[in-house]
Amino acid sequence: MPDAKDAPSPAAATAPPPAATTAPLHERLVTTEHKLKLGKRSLDYSVTCGTLVLREDEHTKDGQRSADKPRAGLFFIAYTLNNGNGKSAAPRPITFSFNGGPGSSSVWLHLGILGPQRVATDEMGNAPPPPYALVDNEHTLLADSDLVFIDPVGTGHSRMAEGEKVAEFHDYQRDLDAVGDFIRLYLTRFGRWDAPKYVIGESYGTTRAAGLSLHLQDKHDVFLNGVMLVSMAVDLQTLCFDHGNELPHALFLPTYAATAWYHQALVPELQGKPLRDVIAQAEAFAWGDYTLALMQGSRLDATTRQHVAGQVARFSGLSTEYVLRSDLRPEEFRFFKELLRHRGQTVGRLDTRFVGQDRDDAGEKPETDAAMSNLAGAYTVGINRLLKHTLKFDSDAPYVVRAPIWDKWGWKDFANKYANVGASLRRAMHANPHMRVYVASGYYDLATPHSAGDYTLCHLGLRDRLQKNIKVSYFEAGHMMYIHQPSLARMAAELRAFVRGD
User: Fold this and answer.
1) Which residues pair with 104 in a beta bridge?
2) pLDDT in tens, 326-361
3) How would DSSP label each residue in 154-175?
4) What region does 23 belong to: left with phi over 0, alpha with psi -120 to 50, or beta?
5) Reduced to 3 states, what is the DSSP secondary structure of residue 347?
């Protein structure tokens, strides 16, 4: 799939999967007590981390139920606010969180914005030199909601049972089954059925969250109060640069314009305008004349072709000649390499504010994603330090931050067509009109551009009365917009207000 924040760079796409994807399963839970000072307020909270085993009925040949067969162990980290006697004073909201990939653990949202500790970065989002650091997170959502971070099978410490097949879990629907079963089991085991319930996902996690909004209703009668979608990947047609699919070319152009503006690569007329004015002009062109030109294909006359190429170049920062050589369709990896080629730099995919350098300045694709290179080490150190030293969870098994399974992911429910789970979100909202949706998009995200998310929301098919249930916020940062300190503060405040119902 195209997005995927956790997808490796082209050079790393053939890396082998982690060796330990199956293991004998047993439940092991570790609980610790903690305190966090937030100004004049102090949060006393418990953290339970460990593995819950998912089981299914196993039957004898004559159809009699014989045992519950263990299928997978899902690792989680749960934060619960305490009162004086160690229990919640009233049913607090509970938020289930996961990231994307497919193949990512829950570490990014956990240590980026939601949890009581976060990875230290500077104002822009640069991580410091190794060995990195964790700092108290004054913006934690724990102030207003209990938190459960879920690692899907094959990530974190989550593993399949011995004898299970990878395809049973690394598939859109089977993944929903596993995460949905975990949420049902957690609500039962820890007595949280009476809590207001939320899910938050990032990147492919938004695909999962949109699917879960309906799956939880249909399979477990769990009706959510809200869904939070960070960097939307709900309709994959908007993100796939396949021959004959014209949508991404138009939907990525506004982010090309934002990126070129940030790196001061636009013509002076545009460079002198505020960012949002530049984006608005790029969107008007992209959704208008550019889309009309793309739809005409080879029927487009030479004069119009030259004019459109000039406009694409004007908004993207590329040369008119390069746009013409690209048949008016400069796809994402070409853009990463070409925009700053004359400076000997590439731009990042997850966050185009970041720049990198390759061995040389030829070629069409960058060697690595500069944005992911900035963060991967810091978040890996952060979760391992947190587990061992703070949460007292000792294990010699590797905590898998990123498993390269995204290109092997199963899409049986969407065979021979683009995956689009917007219909699940719409059906869930129609069945549960109390459910609200929060969407966060980054202007410098070229994995899941904001305009692609806007297009998806415009085509959900929601009835008018439910449009008010969706709130969209835009940030001057990338895919993980919360690494940018001003965006972190605003986004965290909006998430806290969302779960309070403000």
Assistant:
1) 402
2) 999 999 999 999 999 999 999 999 999 999 999 999
3) TSBT-EEPTT--GGGTSBHHHH
4) beta
5) strand
User: Which tokens sit at 389?
Assistant: 């030293």
pLDDT at 419 over 80: yes
Among residues 32, 113, 81, the alpha carbon closest in space to that of 382 is found at: 113
Among 354, 312, 336, 345, which Cα is nearest to 442's? 354
- The 8-class DSSP code of residue 476 comes to S
pTM for the whole structure = 0.92
* Digit-coded pLDDT (tens) for 301-329: 999 999 999 999 999 999 999 999 999 99
Instruction: Give how far Cα 43 sits from Cα of 83, 110, 336, 368, 489, Å.
Output: 9, 17, 43, 40, 19
Q: Identify the structural domains of the chain with CATH numbers, from first to last.
A: 10-237+375-500 (3.40.50.1820), 244-370 (no CATH)
The amino acid present at 179, given as its one-letter code, is V
Dihedral angle of Cα 189, 47, 227, 210, to the nearest 10 degrees: -70
Reported as a pLDDT band with limits 50, 70 and 90, residue 183 is very high
**Of 478, 492, 428, 491, nearest to 231 (Cα)?**
478
Position 387, amino acid: L
Q: Tell me: pLDDT of 90 over 80.
A: no
Q: Which two tokens stand for residue 235?
A: 């309709």
Gap between the Cα atoms of 126 and 390, Å rounded: 24
